[in-house]
Amino acid sequence: MSTPRANRANDDAIRKWNRIPREALEAMEPHGDFAKHHLVNPELLRLLGDVRGRRVLDAGCGHGYFSRMLAGRGADVTGVEPTDTMLTYAREKEAAEPRGITYVQGDLCRLPDLGGPFDAVVCSMVLAAVPDWKPAMRACVEALRPGGLFVFSLNHPAFEQLLSTWRAHGDYRLSRYLEEYEIPQPLASDFHRPLSAYLNALADLGCRLRALAEPGLDPSVAREAAPTTPGIESYVRLPNFLIVSAERP
């Protein structure tokens, strides 16, 4: 259960993410950023499987790009997002090109009534940005029907700062894996936690692990991106992202 202090920390993170410029959201159309397009999205979609006719919650949907991808594949999508900036953008996109997506403003740790259980919940690149994250994971799992699928992605805890350290040293270096600590970012912080923290939390919720994915970048894509992205070859050799699929009991 979240404490008042934890709630304040989460609220502060939401306020920081609310400052994201609209230009940054527009730049991520239609597939998210480079890494999401080439590494995260394909694995999320593979692990979710056929979503046609399925009720799917996009938990922490941001500006809604993945909600739109899911709806384009025939899912009945609800997107939950706490920030005014990203939620407004997502609703504007839905109004301009209706896909049947319902967008709801809400904190993942304190989900509103969403009209019954979901067949699948996807939570992409969100949990590591939530200071008090366990209630958010619990809410995602509890939003599922029995046997429903929970799929989440995050920066791989063992390789979070892959690109920056590769650029600096020509290889990857990590010295504080077992600790939990804050990673400052331009808008709001991420939080490092070891992989065991996430998997043990799933086990505590009674979930059955179905699959882990650690995608590497296609070498041909890396070669094309190399002139503008020094160090991108690191994405070919090491996994910067982790995608987890689990089933609610």
From TrEMBL:
<dbReference type="GO" id="GO:0008168">
    <property type="term" value="F:methyltransferase activity"/>
</dbReference>
<keyword id="KW-0949">S-adenosyl-L-methionine</keyword>
<keyword id="KW-0808">Transferase</keyword>
<feature type="domain" description="Methyltransferase type 11">
    <location>
        <begin position="57"/>
        <end position="152"/>
    </location>
</feature>
<keyword id="KW-0489">Methyltransferase</keyword>
<dbReference type="Pfam" id="PF08241">
    <property type="entry name" value="Methyltransf_11"/>
</dbReference>
<dbReference type="GO" id="GO:0032259">
    <property type="term" value="P:methylation"/>
</dbReference>
<dbReference type="InterPro" id="IPR029063">
    <property type="entry name" value="SAM-dependent_MTases_sf"/>
</dbReference>
<dbReference type="InterPro" id="IPR013216">
    <property type="entry name" value="Methyltransf_11"/>
</dbReference>
<protein>
    <submittedName>
        <fullName>Class I SAM-dependent methyltransferase</fullName>
    </submittedName>
</protein>
